Amino acid sequence: MRQRAAYLLQFPQVRTMLPDTFSVTFCLPFAPVRWKVTWDPRQAVETSILLFSLGLVVAKISNCTDTPFSSDMWISIELSLLVLASIVYYLATRLTWTKQPKLTAASSQPTAQPDRPGSPRIDTREGRRTLHLAPSNTLKIGVFGYVWMTVPKNYRDSADDGIFTGILVGPLISSALLYLTLQAFTATPPSDPLSHTWLIEAPRVLGHMNALEALLLSRRNLVNLSTFCSTILIVHVCASWMTEARHRRKIQVPDGEVSSVPRKEGRRTYLYVLFTVSVSLWILCVRIAFSEAKIGIWQNLNYLEVVASSLFFQFSLFMAIRMAHHGFTFGELGLVCFGATVLFMEMLNLTIARIWPVTTPFIKTFRLPTPLLVFQIALIPGSLMVGLLLSPLLYLSRHIAQRPVRRLRYPAEKQKQRRLLALGFYLGSVLIVGGLIGMWTRWCLGKRDPWLWVLYWILEGKKKWSRPVLLAYWAALGSISVAGWNRQLARSRRYRPRGVGDLMHTPFEGARSAGNAEHSDSGTPSTPPPDSGGLGLSFSNLPNGAQMSNVATDLLDAADKRVPLLSLNARRKFFHALAVVMFLPGLAVDPAFTHLSFSAAFALFVFAEYVRYFALYPFGASVHLFMNEFLDQKDNGTAILSHFFLLTGCAGSVWFEGPSQLLLYTGILVLGVGDALASIVGKRVGRHRWVATSPKTLEGSVAFTASVVAFAWLLRVCGLTEHFSLTRYAVVAGLSAALEAFSVQNDNVILPVYMWSMLVMGDVYGAL
Length: 768
Prior knowledge:
Blueprint: H1 2-10, E1 15-16, E2 22-27, E3 33-39, H2 41-63, H3 71-93, E4 96-101, H4 125-129, H5 163-186, H6 211-247, H7 265-292, H8 303-323, H9 330-355, H10 371-389, H11 391-402, H12 414-444, H13 450-458, H14 466-491, H15 500-504, H16 509-515, H17 545-562, H18 568-589, H19 591-613, H20 620-628, H21 642-655, H22 666-685, E5 688-689, H23 698-717, H24 726-742, H25 747-761
Parallel strand pairs: 1-5
Antiparallel strand pairs: 2-3, 3-4
């Protein structure tokens, strides 16, 4: 009994709040059979939250207009049709209908079971200690949604394809942006769409239309664009199903493939291009038919925008699924590509406004057309364009690094070729950034030099020293964190006990290491020389340098013995906490400067991923080894995306802009505070799982809600936000916690944008 009590204290019992499946059996009148309907409660809760949120959006936008069949009324109709289509899709794909014969009097009698002795318990102590998740009710291949000419192995392994995230979250964000603008436009007098804390020059306007009116028309266009992209996703899914139904059982295909998709990559690309052009022409015809029939659906999209956005959205789907192979679910892919399409359309409309300023009525950008938007387009799409233009050099660099020396024609030339290719990429990047991208930025800034503009703008903060101090603060924190982790991870291998490495690494890391063998012979040392400090610095010239070095070494060695015992979750949540420490001062002091800094950080991450994935000399191996220590099961694709998602989640609430200071902190509160504490509390004290197929617990959800609300209240007490309704904020935080608990999509990219949208639609800020 004592041993059992001690065991229960050390390994307490974990309870499940919801069953794996729900089922209802009913019988129609005068029918010979009964029907049994079965569904997954996790998917049902997740879908219900998203549908409820978009339904709230429909009601809010409908109340903003009294004119029948106005633009806003047609937008609410579009969103209602999307909600209806989602409900039909859920009923058709997520419910299992089974026929059962009616029970008769004879069959209803219980059958006697023969007496037999009970089976002895055969379990070991290790088996009792291990907490096993119930097998996930993975959807069948025919129920998963796929982009045309893609196969299951192109997507990240998940129990849910996330299609409702892909088709509902984009319209939810767009509608929240529109609702913000409607509130500012209908106020008396009209309010400023930006808070007074944003220190940036006034937005550019054309003609007699002011910035707020242009923003209102642009965001109506954005909502049309979001439902437009969701429609294209549904078309891809339906077309994939129809094609697979025609080819099923004709040929045998290996796991991860489908019979309707050819194995040759060239054939796939050819068919995808044909399908993309066909869908674009078909949807253009639908838009023309709506216009001729006086139907206001997609009325804010002109014919050029219909064709351009359709082609680019489908092109980005194709490129993302191949460049980040096995890195996205279908829903994450759709949401990311929608964001890319938004940036592309803003770049296109800015360019059109500069070419034809007289005939263009207004600048159709979904944020205010300030220099912040110009620089964001130059940094984020520009960094991706650099990789596209220099892709031959990147491909050759990875190809040579992967090839064993014995299989090369000139083995002695391998390192020389890698150096030349890396040099070519670095020089090419400088030329593209300074030439093509720099010239476009200069042109959009009114022939002002972008480099000089940034230098002068850094000195135009609240104080001349405030922005340089912020830059120094960010640089110091980032450098110390990366250098410290790099040193500890490199030296701690000496103290890692046997067997700990198996607990530290996830099962796929061996495959990743084998797939990235190019980093093994790059010639870059992963540890500093023995005569140097942890950061590669020597203190031999200082007085008593030997004694200081010995003391420092003893302290660092003691830390080294602790680092290998840190769990992967603790390592990853360190960067969530770091996001709060880094970004909170910037948002409180200068949100406009933080906006530009987020864009620059994203571009820096893109170039770091180029260096890592394509094994560019001389930093490829170091970056790869460092990133490999923080990977989890969601980072088993070719590209490492977690840091992109974390940065985008923190920056999204700033990039959306807006008049509320409270909304700016949404990203760092959700990820840096709520998500981190929910994970820590759920793993340490969580005893009530929501469902058996997920490790998310009730205690973690409560910790998420309580920590986010408490931190937001603390910000209000410190005077960093305006007054807001704490009750409404807690309700929105609870909804976000429920979505975090029941969704299997990436929390870093979904939760911040969802909570930001619901804070807007719930009228939380400014309410008491």
